[in-house]
């Protein structure tokens, strides 16, 4: 029987209640007093005996209520704590100062594959792969935060926090460890770095060749084979890689992209493979997870693969052959499950002949080749892409531009786009910014000068150059006034916004044939 006995500030109540119980030859299991409430737990009683005891207690002075309860407060608290600790996804292990388990939650048991048998009170040395950290905390009283620990037995990486626990006198009496598997960390990383999902529907085209390429790529998405995407800069290699990932069974895991040119070779190696603590000067404490491991279950996009050093090529080859990685400074191989999509705009076949690209790696990468033609080789796509990019740019700067004039389109169709769709995007964005009316006009199409996007210089035709500096300045002035007119709808406001007198702005509007009615 469990009772909750409420009273009005009454001294000696515990004694009086105990007297009643003992007088009736009943065993008291426990009693708790919290402010004006006394909780009593006895051995189980027959119904009539229970009623009799309750009546007797009610007779005591200053008792306001006596009722039966299901759980004693301490046990209720313990159960609530159990629910909390067993609901959280982190593993929690508390030990005493000898390293004997005092508490282990459900997640810790699952993460560390601990036996179902009762291990409370047993030393955790043989049970957890981070006993060294626990020991250090118990000896020094120091905390260890986000330490990466590898379990050779289960081949799993964990992230572990170990913190000392002190009693009220400041004496260390144990420690508590929080454990997360790298999978959970990976999911958090994925959430934080998530980008808008790219699908095949985001690839805009009209040409037959692109139709065929998208059809093939959709099919390749289902397999786990390595893909090598070839094509000039800005022609959509990464777009295809993302679409393939998102159409693959790996879509719920990470897509990680790394540009092999952008990072110095030694850094690239540690980015890809990770490293063990202390493996080189500057290596961060606890080691570092490499991208191959981080992308586990997902896709790793190695952009500009033709730019990696010969030494790194050999290491990459090993990963592709063995499906394992060895961190820098480590001895063990870690199995990985990553789909590789590599991309390059370099002539790998020529590089093999000049021995700057390993042929064995080439054949490992080139399992499924995908050639993306340059935009100038599929001019049918220019119009649909230009319209698509115009809508995107207009929406992002919130303008009403909704069309491309025929002459402007012709100008685009006649251009070579060495920077491919990326360059087309820039040209359209620029045009949307400078266009005065609701249409992009030919004069709004301004090509980049002196670009060497594909290693070739693309000179502008004279047609695209203003006649002289004065003409260029007038063009810019007209465009700025035109843009401002979209925002300021009276000549007074327009003049004020541009720092010009009312008469000056009217004169300039007349000069450039601009009016608010347009
Ligand atoms: N067919 C397409 N439809 C819509 N957008 C495209 C298309 N092709 C490319 N793009 C856009 O053009 C830009 C460049 O594409 P992406 O980054 O995929 O090119 P890349 O070949 O990987 O370039 P790089 O070799 O320079 O890394 C991106 O903003 C991409 O969304």
Automatic annotation (TrEMBL):
Residues 77-123 form the PAS domain. SUPFAM superfamilies: ACT-like (SSF55021), Homeodomain-like (SSF46689), P-loop containing nucleoside triphosphate hydrolases (SSF52540), PYP-like sensor domain (PAS domain) (SSF55785). It comes from the Bacteria. The keyword Lipoprotein does not apply. Keywords: Activator, Aromatic hydrocarbons catabolism, ATP-binding, Nucleotide-binding, Transcription, Transcription regulation. Residues 2-74 form the ACT domain. SMART domains: AAA, PAS. InterPro entries: AAA+_ATPase, AAA_lid_NorR, ACT-like_dom_sf, ACT_dom, Homeodomain-like_sf, HTH_TyrR, P-loop_NTPase, PAS. Pfam families: AAA_lid_14 (PF25601), HTH_50 (PF18024), PAS (PF00989), Sigma54_activat (PF00158). Residues 203-433 form the Sigma-54 factor interaction domain. PANTHER family: C4-DICARBOXYLATE TRANSPORT TRANSCRIPTIONAL REGULATORY PROTEIN DCTD (PTHR32071:SF57), TRANSCRIPTIONAL REGULATORY PROTEIN (PTHR32071). This is HTH-type transcriptional regulatory protein TyrR.
């Amino acid at each position: 029987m469990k009772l909750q006995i409420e009273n009005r500030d009454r001294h000696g109540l515990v004694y009086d209640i105990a007297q009643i119980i003992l007088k009736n030859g009943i065993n008291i299991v426990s009693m708790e007093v919290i402010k004006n409430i006394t909780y009593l737990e006895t051995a189980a009683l027959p119904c009539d005996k229970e009623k009799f005891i309750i009546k007797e207690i009610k007779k005591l002075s200053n008792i306001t209520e006596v009722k039966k309860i299901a759980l004693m407060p301490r046990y209720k608290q313990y159960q609530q704590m159990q629910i909390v600790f067993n609901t959280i996804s982190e593993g929690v292990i508390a030990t005493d100062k000898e390293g004997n388990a005092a508490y282990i939650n459900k997640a810790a048991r699952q993460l560390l594959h601990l036996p179902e048998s009762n291990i409370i009170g047993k030393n955790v040395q043989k049970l957890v792969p981070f006993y060294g950290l626990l020991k250090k905390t118990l000896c020094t009283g120091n905390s260890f935060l986000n330490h990466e620990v590898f379990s050779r037995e289960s081949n799993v990486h964990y992230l572990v926090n170990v913190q000392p626990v002190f009693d009220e006198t400041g004496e260390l009496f144990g420690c508590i460890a929080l454990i997360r598997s790298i999978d959970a960390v990976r999911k958090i990383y994925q959430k934080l770095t998530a980008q808008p999902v790219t699908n095949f529907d985001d690839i805009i085209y009209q040409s037959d060749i692109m139709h065929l390429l998208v059809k093939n790529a959709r099919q390749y998405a289902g397999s786990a084979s390595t893909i090598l995407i070839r094509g000039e800069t800005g022609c959509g290699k990464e777009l295809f890689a993302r679409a393939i990932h998102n159409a693959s069974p790996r879509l719920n895991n990470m897509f990680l992209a790394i540009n092999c040119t952008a990072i110095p070779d030694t850094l690239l190696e540690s980015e890809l493979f990770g490293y063990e603590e202390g493996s080189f000067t500057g290596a961060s404490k606890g080691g570092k997870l490499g991208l191959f491991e981080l992308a586990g279950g997902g896709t790793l996009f190695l952009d500009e693969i033709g730019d990696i050093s010969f030494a790194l090529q050999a290491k990459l080859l090993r990963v592709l052959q063995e499906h394992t990685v060895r961190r820098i400074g480590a001895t063990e191989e870690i199995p990985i499950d990553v789909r590789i999509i590599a991309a390059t705009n370099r002539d790998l076949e020529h590089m093999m002949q000049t021995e700057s690209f390993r042929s064995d790696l080439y054949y490992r990468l080139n399992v499924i080749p995908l050639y993306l033609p340059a935009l100038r080789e599929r001019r049918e796509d220019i119009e649909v892409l230009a319209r698509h990019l115009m809508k995107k740019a207009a929406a992002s700067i919130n303008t009403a531009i909704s069309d491309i004039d025929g002459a402007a389109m012709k100008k685009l169709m006649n251009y070579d786009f060495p920077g491919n769709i990326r360059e087309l995007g820039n040209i359209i964005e620029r045009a949307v910014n400078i266009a005065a009316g609701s249409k992009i006009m030919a004069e709004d199409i301004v090509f980049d000068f002196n670009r060497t996007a594909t290693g070739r210089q693309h000179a502008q035709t004279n047609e695209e150059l203003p006649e002289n500096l004065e003409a260029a300045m007038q063009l810019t002035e007209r465009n700025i006034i035109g843009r401002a007119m979209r925002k300021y709808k009276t000549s007074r406001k327009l003049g004020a916004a541009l720092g010009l007198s009312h008469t000056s702005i009217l004169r300039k509007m007349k000069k450039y044939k601009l009016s608010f009615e347009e």
